[in-house]
Amino acid sequence: MLVEIRNVSKTYETDGTGIPVLENINFAVEDNDFICIVGPSGCGKSTLLRIIIGLEKPTSGEVFFKGKVIAPDNPKVAMVFQNFALFPWLTVKENIELILESKGVNDKQRENIACKYIKSVGLDGFEKVYPRELSGGMKQRVGFARALAVEPVLLCMDEPFSSLDALTAQNLKDELLMLWADKNMPPDAVIMVTHNVEEAVYMANRIIVLSPRPGKVVADLRIELERPRNRKDPEFYRWVDKVFSLII
Ligand code: ADP
Ligand code: MG
């Protein structure tokens, strides 16, 4: 078991009234899982992901990473954000080197690792370019390169494809699935938040469905479809329908 989410609840206190956002969430992430978390807008998906990576504290309950309570600076965990979250005043390479520096990687290695992962996401030649000069799809490639550069065991992603055009998104999805399946490349496990059910069925080996706020786990499904998955396969559509029927 890689990650264990145990009895996690979260209530936000806003002007004296508590808003319950997550209620008693329990599930475990195995070493090679690709988990998609789906649920209606506002049900607490992003909050849950921030709690899983240790960026936010649950009101009660715990998250364990390899048996220890998760810490926000865990070098084995990386995050890809929906809005890319790049520093506009740094080049592509510098954006990646910065995160490596914060993890204590030395000068020379930083450059090598940054170049390796810029290449792995198909951005070679763009090392010295600033984010404003890149399209949305390219910015998200930088987001992926930055997350992968720390060679995370666990990669967390919050709707990473939702602001990209369909074709770019599809290419990035397939590249990510290849990296996940490649035993010599990070990451081992992925947790991805999405509101796109078809995307979840395409990518996940497990789909966790949350109820409307406060989010509770209403289903934990193992998607038994062969890879690469075919959206035109009737079996694929049975899964999409099944997941849809569970989202209220
Ligand atoms: P989702 O990602 O599923 O759309 P979120 O986790 O972003 O949902 O938010 C769940 C609920 O918690 C929403 O009602 C949101 O307004 C509220 N919320 C999120 N973050 C905060 C915060 N920092 N303070 C107060 N309320 C918050
Ligand atoms: Mg969200």
UniProtKB/TrEMBL annotation:
What is an example of a GO molecular function annotated in this UniProt entry? ATP hydrolysis activity
Q: Does the keyword ATP-binding apply?
A: yes
Q: Where is the ABC transporter domain?
A: 3-237
Mind telling me which PROSITE patterns this protein's record contains? ABC_TRANSPORTER_1 (PS00211), ABC_TRANSPORTER_2 (PS50893)
Keywords, comma-separated and alphabetical: ATP-binding, Nucleotide-binding, Transport
Name residues in a coiled coil: none
Which InterPro entries is this protein grouped with? AAA+_ATPase, ABC_transporter-like_ATP-bd, ABC_transporter-like_CS, ABC_transporter_ATP-bind, P-loop_NTPase
Can you name this protein? Answer: ABC transporter domain-containing protein
**Organism of origin:** Candidatus Methanoperedens nitratireducens
